[in-house]
Design brief:
Blueprint (H helix, E strand, L loop, with lengths): L1 E3 L2 E3 L7 E4 H20 L9 E4 L5 E4 L2 H7 L5 H16 L4 H20 L4 H22 L1 E2 L5 H12 L8 H15 L1 E2 L5 E2 L5 E7 L7 E3 L2 E3 L11 E10 L19 H24 L4 E4 L5 H9 L3 E3 L4 H11 L3 E2 L11 E11 L2 E7 L7 E7 L2 H24 L1 E4 L3 H14 L6 H12 L1 H9 L4 H13 L6 E2 L6 E2 L8 E3 H19 L3 E4 L40
Parallel strand pairs: 9-18, 12-13, 12-15, 13-14
Antiparallel strand pairs: 1-2, 3-23, 4-5, 6-19, 7-8, 10-18, 11-17, 12-16, 16-17, 19-22, 20-21
Helix pairs in contact: 1-3, 1-4, 2-3, 3-4, 3-16, 4-13, 4-16, 5-12, 5-13, 5-16, 6-7, 6-11, 7-11, 8-9, 12-13, 12-15, 14-15
Length: about 575
């Protein structure tokens, strides 16, 4: 509202709430730090899990940063930006979500001290940008080469990724499965670069057995049954026909009437229909196919003829599954029965219907060179299986990252310590206040090894001092053995490695989010709408953070439950 000649001028709707300058900045920084603290205890092999209960009572138990933040109902706009950081990290590289959020929170916490020293936010963000660029350069400089042929490196990266998950006891077997799956679907482009599409690795889940019974199927699993009980339930050395058209008589799209004047004509009509279906079945049988996978329907009469020919048939299979089958079996998808040729049929070593718990599934496996595979996850309960799926997804992404980027760094907080040490040297070459921002950035990187140590019950400061001493002596991958608390001079030698691109993306994501939050000096929250419950502040957000809301349904600062600070 402004005053003009004594008359009030309304600029914004009455009830609109506005925060400016330092208050707005501190409010946003505080909200972002709360989010970082929420996930901090879940970092590393000794990290704890979170139990998340939604409004319907559904339970999720996980320590995956992206899943935790996705499940929490975050209201504060700055906190939502932190959630976006984890989403970006997850979709881009699949791992390091907790790292990126913790790093963003620490950058903001330390930037707050610079703001209190009257250093302008633009100077801080420019210093952070320079530091991030230099950090990426340092990370690639200290990386070790790897790739699709480095089986040990791929497996170690997958095991490191899964060591902090519920599946850590079974990580050796699961890492092998993830590596084999990615190697199966990886393809080399003309310029010599490898690409691996995670979408080609299908994941099926079923309760029962244990995590150790999880298996890799070199082919496809269809959530279907054989159409007729008289058909064979298992076919070895199977030639497979992939069909998009129906094996039934097409109904006309327009109304048609048949005038029948005698019983013989009814019989002729039925005989002709039977003849057409028999012809269709004969075309399938003559092609040499032993298994028919059809995207559309198969008539009962046609099923009878296929059964007599000893052919296994499956109907109403999803288009996406048919396409995956084509990649797995090497077959062509036909749209017309007249076009079928024997040399374009797919092949699998075994096609078999099996009962898993109460469901019948069709396993198409032992394919020669499958470009589409399935991981069948088993586990005691649904909650366990869901967490195993998240762990396997992260491990698949990590193996893919190494195959595509071909770079690895040691784990256990080693790359962060090394990058921080080199950044401090770089800061001394800069002039002006940006030097302070770069030093703050370097100090912020220490939060990762400190958090790993804290979650393992070790002393943060002692651990940090030991690590710095080891790095100053030239051990670039010196990290902490969290079981013993000792410093290991080369984490890569004991098999603790991570893809360089995961660390690079964490630095990029956290720096960009931090810079955006620091540059906000004005928060304008719209007036509440008519449908808001009583007692809600303007902007429709629960109280707790200057009227800017925390997490829905949860009390405490920013709405987090006690103990998650």
């Amino acid at each position: 509202m402004a005053q003009l000649g004594g008359t009030p001028v309304l600029i914004m709707r009455e009830g609109t709430e506005r925060q400016r300058g330092r208050d707005a900045m501190q409010n946003n920084i505080a909200a972002a730090i709360v989010i970082a603290e929420a996930v901090r205890t879940s970092l590393g092999p000794m990290g704890m899990d979170k139990m998340l209960v939604d409004q319907f009572g559904d339970v999720v138990i996980t320590n995956d940063g992206a899943t935790i933040l996705k499940e929490i109902d975050v209201q504060h706009p700055a906190a939502k930006m932190m959630v976006e950081v984890s989403k970006t990290q997850d979709s881009e590289v699949g791992d390091g979500t907790t790292t990126s959020v913790i790093l963003a929170g620490e950058l903001l916490k330390r930037a707050k001290k610079l703001l209190e020293q009257k250093i302008h936010p633009t100077v801080i963000t420019e210093g952070f940008r320079k530091a991030a660029d230099k950090a990426v350069e340092i990370l690639y400089a200290i990386s070790i080469n790897s790739g699709i042929d480095d089986e040990e490196g791929l497996k170690n990266a997958a095991m490191t990724c899964m060591s902090s998950k519920i599946v850590s006891e079974s990580k050796v077997k699961l890492a092998q499965i993830c590596m084999d799956a990615i190697k199966a679907v990886a393809e080399k482009s003309e310029d010599g670069k490898w690409t691996a599409d995670i979408e080609k690795v299908q994941i099926q889940k079923k309760e029962g057995d244990s995590i150790d019974d999880t298996s890799l199927i070199k082919g496809i699993i269809l959530d279907k049954e054989v159409v007729s009980p008289g058909m064979p339930k298992s076919v070895s050395d199977a030639k497979i026909l992939l069909l998009q058209s129906a094996i039934e008589i097409e109904k006309t799209e327009f109304d048609a009437k048949l005038q029948i004047t005698s019983p013989e004509q009814i019989q002729q009509f039925l005989d002709e229909e039977e003849h057409m279906l028999r012809t269709m079945a004969e075309k399938v049988a003559n092609s040499g196919a032993k298994v028919v996978i059809c995207q559309k329907g198969i008539d009962d009469m046609a099923q009878h003829f296929l059964t007599k020919a000893g052919i296994m048939a499956v109907r109403r299979v999803k288009k996406s599954d048919i396409e995956k089958l084509a990649k797995a079996t090497g077959g062509t998808i036909f749209t017309n029965l007249d076009d079928i040729s024997n040399d374009k049929l797919g092949w699998a070593g075994l096609v078999e219907e099996r009962k898993i718990m109460n469901d019948s599934w069709i396993f198409i496996e032992k394919c020669k060179d499958p470009k589409s595979v399935v991981i069948l996850i088993r586990g005691g309960t649904e909650l366990v299986i869901d967490e195993v799926e998240r762990a396997i997804h992260d491990a698949l992404c990590v193996v893919r990252d190494v195959v595509e980027d071909q770079k690895l760094v040691g784990g256990g907080g080693a790359p962060e310590i090394e990058t921080a040490i080199q950044l401090r040297k770089y800061a001394s070459t800069l002039g002006g206040r940006e030097q302070l921002a770069v030093e703050i950035f370097a100090d912020s990187l220490d939060i990762i090894p400190k958090t790993l140590a804290e979650n393992a019950g070790l002393d943060q400061i002692d651990t940090l001092m030991k690590l710095r001493a080891a790095h100053q002596q030239g051990h670039k991958f010196a990290g902490t053995d969290l079981d013993t608390g000792d410093v290991v001079n080369d984490m890569a030698k004991i098999g603790v490695v991570e893809p360089t691109v995961v660390k690079v993306q964490a630095i990029k994501s956290s720096t960009e989010a931090t810079s955006m939050i620091l540059r906000i000096d004005d928060v304008i929250a719209s007036a509440k709408s008519a449908g808001m419950p009583p007692g809600m502040p303007p902007g429709g957000m629960p109280p707790g953070m200057g009227g800017m809301g925390g997490m829905g349904g949860m009390g405490g600062m920013g709405g987090l439950p006690p103990g998650m600070m």
